[in-house]
Specification:
Chain A: Residues 358-406 are annotated as: Disordered. The complex is a heterodimer. By secondary structure, chain A is α+β, with helices and mostly antiparallel strands. Chain A has 2 domains: 2-224, P-loop containing nucleotide triphosphate hydrolases (Rossmann fold, 3-Layer(aba) Sandwich), CATH 3.40.50.300; 240-362, OB fold (Dihydrolipoamide Acetyltransferase, E2P) (Beta Barrel), CATH 2.40.50.140. Chain A has 8 helices and 20 strands. In chain A, the strands form 4 sheets. Chain A has a 6-stranded mixed beta sheet, with helices on both faces. In chain A, α2 runs parallel beside α4 (140-152). The longest helix of chain A is centred in the middle third of the chain and has 18 residues, at 170-187. Chain B is mostly helical. Chain B has a domain at 61-215: MetI-like (MetI-like fold). The longest helix of chain B is centred in the last third of the chain and has 36 residues, at 233-268. Chain B is globular and about 70 Å long. Classes of the chains: A alpha+beta, B mainly alpha.
Chain lengths: 406, 274
């Protein structure tokens, strides 16, 4: 089956890494296609950096295999692997100048004439003329580019980037994101980018793997993951989601019908990951429309009513917080092109959305999962247009399985 | 006037303290150019360059200096190598009893020299080891090692492990990583430790005196000579050592300043794009 993989694909096969009793990476299998820009996204402590270090050879897996193309590199020392890393802190050699930092990998492989290659690489990262300086004399962004040049000059089969932009300020980070994409397109090397910044992952990568507690929760193109998340964790780690507790009540030809807190919601069958029992009904905040008059909700739309509790103006958009009768706060993003003056805090409003924008996720009813207080209140009043009084202060986010995995 | 005093009294105190520290050295330097009127006289009698022209006029003294240098060099090399290896082990490897050994390292520094000298002597006598040149070396290595370990450890602990990982990631084998990255970065600490070890060994008197047998080091010679009248050449050796040390310190700080200035010059020249 290894023959099926094209030459340069990286494959992790059932990789597990334990540190004492703590399992950092849990039976992970993953294929990173050659030439792709692949992002490993997750909160700190989710195992993404450990995964990267196992690929680099700086950490040995407890079990499982790491394959590059057809080659098993699991037991190979780091300096024997055709893989280079850009470290989070850059790890430039402080006692060597920029030229020697960049030339380091070539020299270790016995290449004598490095000058021309180093110059070309420094030009690629727009640092020509900086060769004689020491790392300490460069700014953070420049050091970052040196680290990149130092890795790329070796023409690795794969470049590993460990939160490479974490130490930069926002503007510089944007700039470097664009530059990294440009360089990746130019050199065509597989980039494996580890980050906790979901925006960065979506922006840069063509494939994103969302990691949680040592496992991959979902893998796919950024738009696919965003539009149809696989789990409550993904729904709230990659952007925000409004998740409403519901039960499947049946379905018609195209749509799954669910009931929650007295409301009925429709979702296309192909956007339901569970077709029975307890579920989460999810919808992204920007898919919601707000109307002050409930009778103006178009036919065939899902709708939820509540009281506006807060309005946060963010320039490009406004976020409205809507408190439902059962105390859940739903978030609604509206572009600031046609503000409705009637939408002020305290007003009763209805949020509605097209069924095709909903998604349905299985809901684990077991204890612990509902520990955040959003548990269903038995016999919740129908209609939801009641008084809007703050109920039990539940929050709209489902429990994120973010176990103190630090 | 009061304002003037208020602004300058700190400087005045500083100058006084500085004078207190340097005056004895200046006296030694001055006496090295003295032709004493008698053997036991420390008065400044007459200016002469004789002492500097013939520092080895007293043969025993120069023998003692050479012996101290030999002991110092051997003790420095042995203790620097041992201490550096110990520092690496203590910083880089977790093993049972590490914290205990970390405490033990401080023991020779905290123990009064008198205690160390007598206990070593007792040990050598009990073991039937004849005292002499090599027992002095052993004694010196023993107390120098602690200082080397502490100095190198401090440098090593401040070093980022990721630099070594980065080197390995860039095709450097374990040995190349040590040779190209670890050693150059730790070297200033090792050099400092070696200089410290040499100076500790060179001027140690108490421990040496207990374990020397019939061997005479320079400090022991000076001590002995003080009873009979110190030959003025002793001041020459003292002054020369002080000047050499001063030159070493001056050269290293000059190098640092020149490197900084070069760095600034590089920063000032416009180079390519920002």
């Amino acid at each position: 089956m290894a023959q099926e993989a094209p030459a340069g694909d990286l494959r992790l096969a059932d990789v597990t890494k334990r540190f004492g009793v703590f399992t950092a990476v849990d039976d992970l299998s993953l294929t990173v296609p050659q030439g792709s820009f692949f992002a490993l996204l997750g909160a700190s402590g989710c195992g993404k950096t450990t995964t990267l270090r196992m690929i680099a050879g700086l950490e040995a897996p407890t079990s499982g295999r790491v394959l590059l193309g057809d080659r098993d590199i699991t037991g190979l020392r780091p300096y024997k692997r055709p893989v280079n890393t850009v470290f989070q802190s850059y790890a430039l050699f402080p006692h060597l100048d920029i030229h020697e930092n960049v030339a380091f990998g070539l020299r270790r492989r016995g290449i004598r004439k490095v000058g021309e290659q180093v110059e070309r690489m420094l030009a690629l990262v727009q640092l020509d003329g900086y060769g004689r300086r020491r790392p300490a004399q460069l700014s953070g962004g420049q050091q970052q580019r040196v680290a990149l040049a130092r890795a790329l000059i070796n023409h690795p089969q794969m470049l590993l980037l460990d939160e490479p932009l974490g130490a930069l300020d926002l503007k510089l980070r944007r700039q470097m994101q664009i530059e990294l994409k440009r360089i990746q397109a130019e050199v065509g090397i597989t980039f494996l980018h580890v980050t906790h910044d979901q925006e960065e992952a979506m922006w840069m990568a063509d494939t994103v793997a969302v990691m949680n507690a040592g496992r991959i929760e979902q893998l796919g193109a950024p738009a696919d993951i965003y539009e149809y998340p696989a789990s409550p964790f993904v729904a709230n780690f990659l952007g925000q989601s409004n998740l409403i507790e519901a039960e499947v009540s049946g379905h018609d030809a195209d749509d799954l019908l669910v009931t929650g807190h007295g409301y009925r919601f429709a979702t296309p069958l192909e956007r339901a990951r569970s077709r029975q029992g307890p579920v989460w009904l999810g919808v992204r905040p920007e898919k919601l429309h707000l109307v002050a008059d409930r009778t103006r909700v178009p036919d065939g739309r899902n709708a939820v009513s509540g009281v506006l509790t807060d309005i946060c103006y963010a320039g490009v958009s406004t976020e409205f917080l809507l408190r439902t009768a059962w105390g859940q706060e739903m978030s609604v993003f509206t572009a600031n092109n046609d503000p409705d003056a009637r939408l002020v805090p305290g007003v009763e409003v209805t949020a509605h959305w097209h069924p095709r924008h909903s998604f349905v996720l299985p809901r684990d009813d077991s204890a612990g999962d509902d520990a955040d207080g959003s548990a269903t209140r038995p016999g919740a009043t129908g209609g939801g247009r009641a008084d809007g009084s703050p109920a039990d202060g539940g929050v709209g986010v489902p429990p994120q399985r973010l176990e103190a995995a630090t | 006037m009061r304002r003037w005093l208020a602004d300058r009294w700190v400087m005045g105190v500083a100058l006084l303290v500085l004078g207190y520290l340097t005056l004895p050295i200046l006296v030694v330097a001055g006496l090295s150019f003295n032709r004493p009127s008698s053997r036991l006289s420390y008065d400044f009698n007459e200016f002469t360059l004789d002492n500097w022209a013939r520092p080895c006029a007293t043969a025993d003294m120069c023998d003692a200096v050479v012996r101290s240098m030999e002991i110092g060099l051997i003790a420095t090399v042995v203790s620097t190598v041992l201490g550096t290896l110990m520092a690496f082990a203590l910083v880089r490897h977790g093993f049972r009893g590490r914290s205990g050994i970390n405490g033990l390292i401080f023991l020779p520094m905290a123990t009064p020299e008198l205690v160390m000298g007598t206990s070593l002597l007792a040990l050598f006598v009990a073991a039937g080891v004849p005292q002499g040149f090599w027992t002095i070396v052993i004694a010196h290595v023993m107390f120098c090692v602690s200082f080397v370990v502490v100095t190198v450890k401090a440098r090593l602990a401040g070093m980022d492990r990721r630099l070594e990982e980065a080197a390995m990631d860039l095709y450097a084998s374990e040995w190349q990583t040590f040779r190209r990255i670890t050693l150059p970065l730790v070297l200033p600490g090792i050099v400092a430790a070696a200089l410290l070890a040499f100076s500790l060994s060179f001027d140690d008197f108490i421990i040496t005196n207990f374990n020397a047998g019939t061997t005479v080091t320079f400090p022991m010679y000076v001590w002995g000579a003080a009873q009979r009248g110190i030959p003025p050449q002793v001041n020459v050796i003292g002054t020369a050592m002080f000047v050499i040390a001063l030159l070493l310190v001056g050269a290293s700080s000059l190098r640092g300043r020149r490197a900084r200035r070069a760095a600034l010059a590089v920063l000032a020249t416009p180079a390519g794009k920002p």
